[in-house]
Specification:
CATH topology of the largest domain: D-amino Acid Aminotransferase, Chain A, domain 1
Number of strands: 11
Largest sheet: 5 strands, antiparallel
CATH superfamily of the largest domain: DNA ligase/mRNA capping enzyme
Distance between the termini: 42 Å
Strand order of the largest sheet: 8-7-11-10-9
Helix content: 10-25%
Oligomer: single chain
Structural class: mainly beta
Length: 198
C-alpha cells in the first residue's frame, strides 16, 4: 500500500495519543428521554478504532488488537479522509440493501476478499489534527460568554473554531443548555475567545 499524502501542517506538533479505550454500551431497564440524549443505531458488526498517523492507517479492535490486515479495505478507504491525523470510533459492517446488518454475513465476507465491508463512524471523532493551532487564543469558560457580542467558539464535537456574530443571541439564551459546556443547534461549545484580528 502506498503511503498517505498528508495535508500541509500548521502550528506546533502535538503527540499522537495511541489507542483510546472506547466507551461501551451499558444495559439499562428504561430508555433515557429528553432533547439532550442522542440515540444511535445498534449495528451488528465489529467495533473498531481507525488510526490515521505517520503516513499510515491502522485498524484496532475494541480491545486494542491490530487487525489492519484483516480489515485491509477499511485501512485503504482511510486514504479518502482529508486529515493528517485522526482517531475514529466506529463499527465494521456489511450493509444489506435495506440498511440492516448481519454479523454472520460479515464473518463470511471476511473469509474472502472482504470487498463489501464498510466502517460506520459513530457520533464523535475521538481525535483529529496532529497540530495545535498556535494562532487561536486561549479559550475562556462558557459561563462568561456574552451571546450578544462577536466572538469565536470552540466546538468540542468537530474540534473546530466557529465564528459568532451575535445575531442568534436571543435563540441562544432561550434554547442553549448550559452544563459546563453549552449544547446549541448540534454544537457543543466548551470555550470562547475574542474575535481574531488580521
Amino acid at each position: 500500500m502506498a503511503p498517505r499524502k498528508k495535508p500541509a501542517a500548521i502550528g506546533a506538533k502535538a503527540p499522537f495519543p495511541g489507542f483510546i479505550e472506547p466507551a461501551l454500551a451499558t444495559s439499562i431497564e428504561k430508555v433515557p428521554t429528553g432533547e439532550r440524549w442522542v440515540h444511535e443505531i445498534k449495528f451488528d458488526g465489529y467495533r473498531v478504532q481507525l488510526h490515521i498517523a505517520n503516513d499510515a492507517a491502522k485498524v484496532f479492535t475494541r480491545n486494542g488488537h491490530d487487525w489492519t490486515n484483516r480489515f485491509n479495505k477499511i485501512a485503504h478507504d482511510a486514504f479518502l479522509i482529508s486529515a493528517s491525523s485522526a482517531i475514529i470510533d466506529g463499527e465494521v459492517v456489511v450493509p444489506a440493501a435495506d440498511g440492516t446488518t448481519d454479523f454472520s454475513i460479515l464473518q463470511n465476507e471476511l473469509k474472502g476478499r472482504s470487498t463489501k465491508i464498510v466502517m460506520v463512524a459513530f457520533l464523535g471523532v475521538l481525535r483529529k489534527r496532529e497540530r495545535k493551532l498556535s494562532s487561536v487564543p486561549e479559550m475562556k469558560p462558557m459561563a462568561s460568554f456574552d451571546p450578544s457580542q462577536p466572538a469565536i467558539l470552540h466546538d468540542r464535537f468537530t474540534d473546530k473554531i466557529e465564528t459568532w456574530t451575535g445575531e442568534d443571541a436571543d435563540d441562544y439564551r432561550e434554547n442553549a443548555m448550559v452544563d459546563g459546556t453549552v449544547e446549541w443547534r448540534g454544537f457543543v461549545f466548551d470555550g470562547w475567545g475574542d474575535v481574531l484580528v488580521g
